[in-house]
Amino acid sequence: MLREETVFGPIFSRRLGSSLGINLLPEKGKICNFDCIYCECGWNRDGRDDTVLPTAAKVRSDLERMLVKLQQNGTLVDSITFSGDGEPTLNPEFPQIIDDTLRLRDLYYPQAKVSVLSNATRVHLPEVFAALRKVDNPIMKIDAPTNELVAKINNPAPGYDVQRVIEALKQFGGDFVLQTCMLRSPDFDSSKPEVVGPMMDIVRLLKPREWMVYTIDRPTPMQGLMKFSPDEMKALVKPVIDEGFRVQIKGAVEDN
Fold first, then answer.
1. What is the mean pLDDT of residues 6-33?
2. What is d(CA 49, CA 29) in angstroms, rounded to the nearest whole number?
3. Are 131 and 15 in contact (CB under 8 A)?
4. Which residues pair with 182 in a beta bridge?
5. What angle do CA 158, 164, 170 make, to 5 degrees?
6. How confident is the model over 162-176, as pLDDT tens digits?
7. What is the chain's Cα-based Rg?
8. Is 0.85 topped by the overall pTM?
């Protein structure tokens, strides 16, 4: 399900409401340093027809045009969300694009949040972290607690290290959202003690302001994947809910 525009929507998001999307990757291709088995955009190998990245100038122009149109139509926008066909921080102009987006948000939709959905692989880069620190919702993904398990579900590019990601996320001082997809595959099960236990330990260590726990909702490139029900996910993460952590489960917020 590749996005065919740089700015798209708004669409309804289970987690963010009325979400106006921004795709910083090719309009008719997919570029990502993950190749997740559940990605709604399909496998990386199937999205190589287009490798042209939108410039900061194009994003700024397309976004302003869309915001003007939506404002004139009275359309609600809860979030301006960087969520495209791959990892948004791979765009070399990401920091400039964030600055431009914040300025346009303040001008046209000051009540909207700016959100970035990222696999957190580039948070260790100072310029990327500085840009993420400016947005309302830096939503950073960790789906599994070890490199071996990440390899099974995310198929990361060579060099990925979950401990480096955890160390980089410490820079937020807890002022970020951690995102985790829970699912079952033929060789991965998020409900196993060796997965969910260490994931909760990561939450305890990083102390994010919110933990988004969700499951697959759309067709996936790998066949045979199974999703969890909200009740199942709530039961799995109940220990950290009981400890007072804010956990959002497929749109249902548990706040203790």
1. 87
2. 6
3. no
4. 215
5. 150
6. 999 999 999 999 999
7. 18
8. yes
